[in-house]
């Protein structure tokens, strides 16, 4: 027998065993819940007979976001599996009861026509992306010599420059190091003029993911000062690089190049299989930096919306498009405060 039900805290261990990405971890859901989102977890179970234990074979963590000044919400199923037909039917019923305009999913699966056809046949339409559609993977199964040999010559040179200057990279999952990360994040956001998550967001993320062993902090130090702080996620056999911040001091010592190399070695030391560099955007400066490490380009299935309210969905998408266009304009509006 195969059935769908909402999950409870008793299902945590089973859910984490099969979850496909750090943002699908139970701990991430608890973080989002404390941050203010409603979090729902749905599972598909198999039970051979009445006396057999039920076994979780498919799980989805859903964050529900209330639309301001309305009784409606939108829901996100990011980086999970492709929802099976049973889950799709469950979501349709649940969405109608809970006044959800649509469910947005970005399966953590490599692109294939078969998956896209399944989604279209089950009522999904393409949506606006949350994560980038493609990313970079570094194969941590290779030896250090193989990896270095594949790097761009300029990247190898910059790594040696950092080493000659005495730059050190250390893991330090301490409160002091995290406070320095917050300071550098605020500085980086101001310098590069991008919208960073708030200090509260970062603190709650760290509170839930560091004690569980998911989040780690690497610092690149020069002459006793932290130049770069990266937060890394470890989930199953994969290392992830979701957040980074840097000082504008001593850029000539090439600390960033050594930081990436030491992050790769950090993943290898943990016996992980691959390093996901968390996104790729053609032509962007940091994408070019990542390309120096000779990673594999991986393209995912993309963003798909399961529309529940056919009346409100076009309105939401129109407002969403306008919002993103405005955010890209150099308007004289202050950015949301980091603090």
From TrEMBL:
Keywords: Acyltransferase, Cell shape, Cell wall biogenesis/degradation, Peptidoglycan synthesis, Transferase. It comes from the Bacteria. GO terms for molecular function: aminoacyltransferase activity. GO terms for biological process: cell wall organization; peptidoglycan biosynthetic process; regulation of cell shape. Signal peptide: none annotated. Residues 155-281 form the BioF2-like acetyltransferase domain. Pfam families: Acetyltransf_6 (PF13480). Belongs to the FemABX family. This is BioF2-like acetyltransferase domain-containing protein.
């Amino acid at each position: 027998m195969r059935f769908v039900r909402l999950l409870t805290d008793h299902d945590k261990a089973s859910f984490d065993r099969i979850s496909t990405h750090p943002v699908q971890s139970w701990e991430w859901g608890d973080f989002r819940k404390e941050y203010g989102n409603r979090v729902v977890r749905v599972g598909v179970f198999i039970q051979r007979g009445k006396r057999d234990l039920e076994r979780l074979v498919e799980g989805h963590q859903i964050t529900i976001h209330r639309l301001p000044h309305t009784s409606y919400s939108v829901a996100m199923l990011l980086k999970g599996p492709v929802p099976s037909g049973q889950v799709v039917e469950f979501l349709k019923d649940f969405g109608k009861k809970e006044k959800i305009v649509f469910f947005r999913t970005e399966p953590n699966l490599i692109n294939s026509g078969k998956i896209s056809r399944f989604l279209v046949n089950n009522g999904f339409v393409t949506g606006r992306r949350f994560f980038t559609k493609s990313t970079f993977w570094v194969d941590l199964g290779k030896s250090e010599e193989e990896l270095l040999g594949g790097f761009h010559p300029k990247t190898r040179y910059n790594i040696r420059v950092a080493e000659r200057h005495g730059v050190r990279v250390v893991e330090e999952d301490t409160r002091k190091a995290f406070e320095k990360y917050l300071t550098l994040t605020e500085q980086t956001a101001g310098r590069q003029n991008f919208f960073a998550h708030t200090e509260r967001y970062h603190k709650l993320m760290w509170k839930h993911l560091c004690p569980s062993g998911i989040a780690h902090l690497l610092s690149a130090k020069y002459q006793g000062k932290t130049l770069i702080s990266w937060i890394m996620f470890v989930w199953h056999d994969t290392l992830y690089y979701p957040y980074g911040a840097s000082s504008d001091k001593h850029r000539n010592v090439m600390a960033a190049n050594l930081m990436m190399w030491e992050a790769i070695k950090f993943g290898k030391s943990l016996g992980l299989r691959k390093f996901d560099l968390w996104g790729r955007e053609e032509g962007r400066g940091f994408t070019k930096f990542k390309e120096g490490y000779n990673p594999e380009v991986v393209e995912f299935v993309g963003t798909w919306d399961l529309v529940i309210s056919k009346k409100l969905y076009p309105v939401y998408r129109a407002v969403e498009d306008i919002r993103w266009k405005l955010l890209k304009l150099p308007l004289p509006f202050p950015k949301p405060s980091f603090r």
